[in-house]
Amino acid sequence: MKGHNNMREIILHCFQWKISDITKILDKVKECGYTSIQVTPVQPCKKGDEWWTYYQPLSFKIGNRSGTKEDLTELCYKANKIGIKIIVDVVLRHLAGDESGKLIPSQSVDQNLRDNPKFWTNAKNTVDYGNRNAIVNGAFGLPMLNYNDAELQNIYINFLKELKNCGVGGFRIDMGKHFALESEGSYFWTRVFGEFGDMFNYAECIETSEELLNKYTPFINVLTDSEATNQSKMVIYVMSHDTEESWGFTKSMDDNVITLKWDLLLKNYKESNVLFYIRAYSDLWKMENIKNINLAG
Length: 297
What we know:
This protein is an alpha/beta fold. Helices cover about 30% and strands about 10% of the residues. Strands 1-2-3-4-5-6-7-8 form an 8-stranded parallel barrel. Helix 10 (about 255-270) runs parallel beside helix 11. It is globular, with a radius of gyration of 18 Å.
């Protein structure tokens, strides 16, 4: 299902929620004018309660502390019945790092992945975000996968097919800007995501120039804090798990400011898809003023 009058998606980001708890709020999500729900990565991951452990997956299977494959299937079935799309955050660029901090995979990573040397780049760590070659080929604190390997791409595709078969309607691709484009010698986007064109997929491309965003948008929508020329291909937000948890930029932003910014976002970017991040223990997402903004949008 698409969004309101201008066919946009209004996405509710239930970050770190249990899948079974999301199932319980579906009717309220629909009532409040959201068209989609983004869930936290569902891949088996490092143990711990910290949010970042979800982004250190151990394999390309379904099921972690947020819920089982059966939980996800039930959520999708019930959401799809009322016209809500479920979007899963997928982590494909890297797997969990070794507990020693070395740039090698954790011993907990699926052995078939861990022990295949073709799947790993052995790239050195870099923090040079101004270097495009480093962004698509370097490592950023974790052991990076060789996403151009055809066998690994088949594993990606099978994982995405399994999610689609559960009823999932879209994917958020973590570290999207770290996957090279065809113009840079990679066929990752067309080979892996080409057959999922009937779904709503978007690549995380935060802190990315308009010029580079415009190179991604022919292949995929972009989650961005900047602007692409084709605004209908953007997924934009007031706050995200990065601004709240990683960087803390929005920690001091109160609900009145969030509401005002959300209203302006939907009014000023009528073609763009928008994402509403739920803070821990916050009910702002279902307040009447937010509901009215969504329904007007």
